[in-house]
Amino acid sequence: MGEGANSLFPNYGRYPLAFVKGEGSRLWDENGKEYLDLMCGLAVTNLGHAPKQVKERLKDQVDQLWHTSNLFHIPNQEKLAKLLTDNSCGDAVFFCNSGAEANEAAIKLARRYFNKVLGKPDQYEIITFHLSFHGRTLATLTATGQDKVKDGFAPLPEGFVYAPYNDSEALEQAIGPKTCAIMLEMVQGEGGVNPADPAFVARVAELCKQHGLLLIIDEIQTGIGRTGKMFAYEHYGVEPDIFTLAKGLGSGMPIGAMVGKEHLRSAFSAGSHGSTFGGNYLSTAAGIATMETMLAEKLSDRAAELGDYIVSTLKEKLAGNPLVTEIRGLGMLIGIGCTQPVADLITAIQEQAVLVVSAGPNVIRLAPSLLISKEDLDRGLDVVCSVLSKQAAAAV
Ligand SMILES: *Cc1c(COP(=O)(O)O)cnc(C)c1O
To answer: Which cofactor does it need (predicted)?
Structure first.
């Protein structure tokens, strides 16, 4: 593509497309061609591209101040922390710059709580699940229950144990004397849009109580209204000790957050963890505007309604399509499970100027803006379904 493409490491498989402008659910490429975005930059731009409220707040902040470091109070950071704790089960927030860093902070907090507060330094193991995704740092790729992200990176840090997802009995077996926490997603995003079974989540919470373990919920993809509640754990009637956020929190500005309950506060004393950029004026300005818009416009409710509509529309239009095995999801995080790899289908959809993304090899993932118009949504779903129908017809 651009002249500088060879100056980058080739660690991404990129489509031959580059966008230069975005507004709402529309993107425009270098040639002025318009695309309809049903993937939101990987479930990030939940309010659409360049949403007015966030843009205005950012512009004001750009004029005022960008960065001072965490050696000083940052009023925006405190304001966003309060917005998060007022609207969740959490009591204290640590800000960072990405999802992996938020999970890294959660892992560190869990270990340090057992080590320093409970005086149990030998209880450091965290149980995670097959097909989970928790990030790309050494600790979080080790926490991730997929071999492909670990290839070539040994030696990996100790202290992670894996169990099959949605299997309460296997989880019980995995708990041992070294276990300190159980960490999971309410809907496995990268792993294939796999919602957790309510009975399983209830059992996870029960086992945590029974064994004195911390419940860590990775809400990096599911949080900030995406699933039809502000945080996906609300669907399940459980309260995590720690939950992590990133993707949707800043509408595209880099920000991550780790939110914990009161009893964990003292595990992080001054100097125990930190980040130079974490929670700086610009990223937290974006976070405040995003949260305020989500709350004022009750966008989680809209995500619940539109999500139901998407699932019922897809079920109707794809009924009898032999390529489609299942349509599943929660709110506006939806997967179309297919009998074959979906890479070519996604390219064919892209050729019709609609953007979707895979979740694992055989699942097409839809994560549209929570503010997408019904008209745009219908048009996008038409394109997705007609490409799947054509492909099914061609395969006969
Ligand atoms: C994207 C994602 C991460 C990693 O976030 P980064 O910002 O890419 O580090 C972690 N957990 C889940 C569930 C995610 O979807």
So the answer is: pyridoxal 5'-phosphate
Match 């839809």 to its residue by tokens: 366
Ligand 1 atom closest to the CA of 132, numbered from 1: 13
pLDDT tens digits for range 148-197 = 999 999 999 999 999 999 999 999 999 999 999 999 999 999 999 999 99
pTM as predicted: 0.98
In the three-class reduction of DSSP (H, G, I as helix; E, B as strand; rest coil), residue 307 is classed as: helix
Cβ of 133 less than 6 Å from ligand 1:
yes
Residues 6+ apart with CB under 8 A from 36: 25, 26, 353, 354, 355, 376, 379, 380, 383
Q: Mutation test of ligand 1: which of 134, 219, 255, 365 has the most ligand atoms closer than 8 Å to its C-beta? A: 134
Compute the half-sphere exposure of residue 153: CA atoms within 13 Å on the CB side of its CA. 14
- 129 Cβ closer than 6 Å to some ligand 1 atom: no
Matching residue, tokens 């939950």: 243
Rounded distance, CA 327 to CA 259, Å?
31
Whether omega for the bond prior to residue 16 falls within 30 degrees of 0, making it cis, is no
